Amino acid sequence: MTRLLEQQVAIITGSGRGIGAAAARLFAQHGARVVVNDLEAEPAEQVVADIRAAGGEAIAVPGDVTAPDFPERIVRAAVETFGKLNILVNNAGYTWDGVIHKMSDEQWQAMLDVHATAPFRLIRAAAPFMRDAAKRELAEGRMPEPRCIINVSSTSGLHGNAGQANYATAKMGIVGLTKTVAKEWGPFGIRCNAVAFGFIETRLTQSKEKGETIEVHGKHVPLGIPEHLRQMATMLIPLGRPGTPEEAAGGILLLASPFAAYITGHVLEVTGGYGI
User: Fold this and answer.
1) What is the rounded CA–CA span in Å between residue 230 and residue 16?
2) CB 66 within 8 A of CB 13
3) Which residues are catalytic?
């Protein structure tokens, strides 16, 4: 198999579970050295162990992406361990649903923080090792190394979704950030794209009746979708089924790979046809 990311260094936030974990393993299979992140240490360390057992290189940097000091900490860990940074995947996030007239300010702000502010801070923290590094390479007459940013959006951001005003706003906001970074950093050879996922089988889309939660700042936020809505969503997908985390990770790899060398500012929909 051709290794598409040989010797590149990638940070993937929210990569202890679901799509992020699948992307971390897939990137490692393609030769990337991966920085794995999760809110909790245990799942991040498990993904690192899986990658190392398969012959890859990875480290775990657990932590809350919304913490003000987190972006510098994870970028520093990547550069100190592997010497550089080629790829940043802003994947971490969760949902905290509620209809507009009952949504609290806390619910609203939490989604903006994790899906828009955190990616912005991470991109800013990466600037010295991506934008500035590329600028130096160009000044020296060298071709810049491949570098790119991939932000995770959602069909909720592109089309809106009842009960997700906060999430939809943040996920559309990340599209605007993506296009702006593409314009600002394009002259340095740095691409920035987004991938908008539809119904992918993860903790966020499992049956809400399972009762699983995520603890955020001391609060237990319910995860999942009511089962009757899951069934309705499947009926609206032309391919007739939800996607797997591995299929979702394929979309991220595509945007990070040499095959996307002339693609920037784009939103790739990985939805099984939902929304067309």
Assistant:
1) 24
2) no
3) 167
